[in-house]
Each structure stands twice: as structure tokens, then as C-alpha cells.
Amino acid sequence: MGERVRVQRILAIDAGGTSTRAAVVDASGLCLGYGIAGGGNPVSDGYDQAVTAVADAAEKAVAESRAARHTISPTLVAMAGAGPRMQQTPIAERLVALGLDGDVDIEADLLAMFHSGTHQSSGSVLVAGTGSVAARITAGRLDLVSDGAGWLLGDTGSGYWIGHRVARAVVASLDGRGPGTALTALLLSELHLEETPERMHGRPRAMLDLIDALYKLRPVGLSRFAPLAFKACGQDPVASQIVTDAASALAGTLNAVRDHRLQGPVVIGGSVARAALAAPPAVAAPLRAALGSEEVIQVEDGLIGAAVLGLRRAGIQVDQEVFRRLQQTVGPLREAAGPGTKTQPTT
Amino acid sequence: MGERVRVQRILAIDAGGTSTRAAVVDASGLCLGYGIAGGGNPVSDGYDQAVTAVADAAEKAVAESRAARHTISPTLVAMAGAGPRMQQTPIAERLVALGLDGDVDIEADLLAMFHSGTHQSSGSVLVAGTGSVAARITAGRLDLVSDGAGWLLGDTGSGYWIGHRVARAVVASLDGRGPGTALTALLLSELHLEETPERMHGRPRAMLDLIDALYKLRPVGLSRFAPLAFKACGQDPVASQIVTDAASALAGTLNAVRDHRLQGPVVIGGSVARAALAAPPAVAAPLRAALGSEEVIQVEDGLIGAAVLGLRRAGIQVDQEVFRRLQQTVGPLREAAGPGTKTQPTT
Lengths: 347, 347
Prior knowledge:
2 copies of one chain form a homodimer. Chain A is of the alpha/beta class. The first copy, chain A, is 44% helix and 19% strand. In chain A, the strands form 3 sheets. A 5-stranded mixed beta sheet of chain A has the order 3-2-1-4-5, sandwiched between helices. In chain A, strands 8-7-6-11-12 form a 5-stranded mixed beta sheet, sandwiched between helices.
């Protein structure tokens, strides 16, 4: 048997919107090296930047592992937009330039997120960061997907969806069409704008300044205002309604893929899903009700899941023992590498 | 007294998103020439294209009038985004190239729309086409404006707002998150897509095709689907809800500027406002309730109003007689020029 068959180490990469994380792990689930680089979501950052982030994170993880590079194979990349139309060659070429064999497999970020929470091969997953999407996983594959239709056409309850509603509510309030809200002061302050009584062209000056500032952002950049809604919810009725509606929408997205006859946990990922679950009980109620009494596992990102998928691809069975070792050994190296895990809803 | 003071003819131009219209009128309100050119909304079409459309429409109207070009002054252009920041020089240069004197004034399209309905100098106006905006007019000036905040941040109840909801409702329906709706067949047919039972990556093939097609449009292009909601409303509950919500939103925009102590008519313009008023009574109810028992005047566009503003700028008083003559003489020349008035909600 050649080297390729006796695989002992694989490289797992989770390319996300805020950062890209990589880990070299061995067949027992032991993490030997960890690396972090910039945003690597090909949909929001562009494919070229994603490839660079993947290569940067890979180099750091491989260097830290001190493993002989030709013994690390395959590489499993978890990425948004994974599918038959996605090019693998540019990534393979960058991995070869790092001394790896270039055997690369790209899987859906959603599948990796699910497997970051469990070694079981069936269950469901809800991820809400900048976007929102849910899936039913059956026998290790995406069986049924709900939402993930992007900022313009879907992503209900996501960070973009919430931030967009925050911006519209403040514009309507300044305009006299909507109720007053604590979000106005929070949003103007976030953008370093003043709320003045001055009026121009029949409108409040602050509204015109706000509109100018917001149209300069990419639409999806409105997701940065989602935390304002979570900050004000519980006190401000407008903010509470936005967060309650988001929790209801996320519950609807999850319910569209749930099958209560099937076994398996519900894995929850993304900063917005976590914030929605941590919101005051009255606000988080719809989402908690959708989760019911089932086992719910919250995960940080898809890196452990990418490792699970990479090990499986190498023919290694990932049982509870291997999975626990992944959890126990990826965490400390991640913490040693410093910040980079998602704390803002920009993933 | 020089030629400039004895002004007998002015040039009025209404630069809209679907077309740009121009008219040469004399001091009695008689329309001597009419011209129509392409879209001239500087916000949606770009400033350069708007200037070209203005010049094209102007040349046609001036040629048809057979008036000595040096006797036509001033030129009044009604345009979205009019304000102190808008450049007048490029338009003046194009007018000089046509043999005019280059004396040009740019006014808000909203003010021209109001004056297309009345020679009175106070009242209110609601315009809903691709966008939506309302204003209170006091002593011939925009006194208070509501909405007009654009597709991302406002324009509630507009053609974009309706078309966006149509698209999101169909995506949600295909995705299993939303109720079934007659809009699905209408939207897929409009985009020449098929509703097949085929599934890919855990999703219906038709949903993936639809998302691909819709993200290829400019966001504001979703306004072209607004007519589907009007077509299906009354029968389809999803479509009826969208149109009812739009009518409520437009009522809110108008109510934010109304002052029932003030005299003056309510002028209504734009294809979407007209369609909302023509919707089944149960659906149009919120808008009809907001209009109450006041005098409501529906207008086609802002051309007659641009002429009113241009004549006033030339020191000519526009009384009921002059206004009636404008209405009676612009119409026939417009009809003789053929289609170009807005029948689709893309203005």
C-alpha cells in the first residue's frame, strides 16, 4: 500500500465570512496544528480572496503541525456555495505550492457546521449569521435545505434581515411615518451622525445624512446593525418586535426541514442564532418553541465538522471517541491563536 | 425692454424613469410642440443619460413648435434628486447647442407632479411608481416630504416594494417556508422558467433557477413584478395581502404630510398609486380611507406641472384659464407623439 492509502493526517478548512480556520488532525482526532486567516466566503468576499484565505490558514496550520507535508491528505474545505459549479483547481494549485498533494474536496459549509456539533450522521442544523439557512441531514448528506436565498430574496431572520429592519425603522421614525425608537440614537451614534432639529428640502437633516451614509454601504453591510436590535430589545418596542419577528422567521426556516420522526440532534450555529436564543424569553419564545425538547447543540463554526468530513473522506470512522478528541484538542489551539472566532453577525 | 423680459414661450421638461417629455408652451398655456425621449431619471439612469434624454426631448419639442429658438426661455426641468447639489451646467450647455439661451432651472419632480394636477399653490401629492413619496405643498414649495428614501431604506408601498415582496413570497413558497400562491406560476412564466419537480442540493430546481435569474437583475428591477400582484389580487390571498399592505403603506406616507386644516387638493401620480386605487375595494380600502372625501386629482406625469413652474418663473401668472389650456393642448400633442406615457410601474 502506498502513502496515500495509509492516511494519518488530514487538513480541514472552514472558510467563513469573518475568518478562515484550518486544522491538521490525525486519525485519532488529535489536532496537531491550527491556523486562522481572513474572510474566505467566496459568495461575499469573492472567489480569489477565498482561495488566498484558504491557503493562508492552511500554511499556518501545516507549519504549526510540524508534520511532513506529503503525509497530510486529503484537504477538506467547507465553504459557502459549494457545489458542482465551484472550481477546485485553483485551491488544489495553492495547496500543491505549500507542499501538499493537492487532493482537495469542497463541501457545503452547512454540512460542516452540523458535524461540528455531532458525529451522528442525521439531524438538523440552523445557521444564522449575516445570512440564514437550515438543513435536514440524512446519512451524512444535505437532504433538504430551507432558505439561504440571500439578502435580497430570503435570509429571513438573519443579521442582514435584522439590520435592514433597524435601518428602515429609523428612517421611518425620522420621517414621521414610523414610531419613535431607541434604535435612532443607537444607529446615528454607530455612524457618527448627529440628530439635529435642522431641516432641508422638507426633511430632517439627520434623515438625509443617514440615507447618504447607508447607501454608501453594500446592502449586505446593513447586517452590522443587527446587534443594535439585540441591545435595545426587551426595552424598546420597535427593537423587540424586530427580534421577535426574526426569531419567528428562524423558527419557520428550521421547521421547514424538521422531521420529528427522524432521530438526531439540532445543531445551531452563527452569531445571530446564538443571540436570538439568548434574548429575553418573551422575545426568544418562537425559536425556543420550534426547538422543543430535542437535544440542541450550539457550535462556533464549521472547523470541527470539516475535520469530521475530512477524516471520513480518508476512510477513517469518526466515532464518539474521535469526535470528543477533536473537540478537546481543536479548542485549546484555537484559543492559543487568539481572536478570530465570530463575535459579530458578519459571517 | 430686451427679448428676455418679453418671454412668450417657455420649454418645460419632465425627466422620468420610463421616458422624458418636453413641451414648448406660450404665455396663454398653448402647447406649441411636444417631444418624448428615453428615461431621464438621474438617480436610476445616471446623470449623463438624463442629460442626453433631456436634450433629445427638448430638440423634438422645439423643432415641432417651429418657434424661433431664441424666443424660447427659460427651460424648466423637473427631475428626481433636484436640489442644490445637482449640476445645471451640463444641461445648459446642451440647450445652448440646440440654439436656446441656456437659462435653465431644475425643480423637484414631485413639485411638478403636484402642479400637473392643479394651478393652486397648496395641497398634497402622492407619487408611487417604482418608488414612493408624498409631500405637502405650501405656497408653491415643498414644505414637508415623506418617504422617497429609495428601494433599500424606504419607498414603502412602491412598485419596487411590491415586486420585492412578490419575489420573496415565491421563493419562500417554492422553499416550503411560505404558503402556496398563484404568484409562483405568474413569476416563473414572466421569467420563462419552468416549475419542475426536479430537486438539486436539497432544493427545488425551480427555486435555484429563480434565484439565479433574480440576482442577475438590479434590485430595483424587481419593480417589474408589481403588476403580477395587482393581476392576482382579489383571488390569491398572498397577492391580496401584498397589495393591501402596499395601500396601507402609501396611506401612511400620505398621512404623514397631510394637514387637514389646510386647503388644496390631493394629487395622485404614478402607475402604482393608480393601480392601488383601481384595486378591488377591499384591497384599496386603506388608501381610499386616507384620501377621505377631499378632492383627488389623478395625473399622468409631471409635464404640465413643469410648464406651470416654467411659466411662473417667467413671471406669467398661471390661473385657471391658462391651466385648462395647458391640459387641453398638451394632451393631443402627447397622443399624436405615440406611446411613452407610463403604463408600467417603472417610473
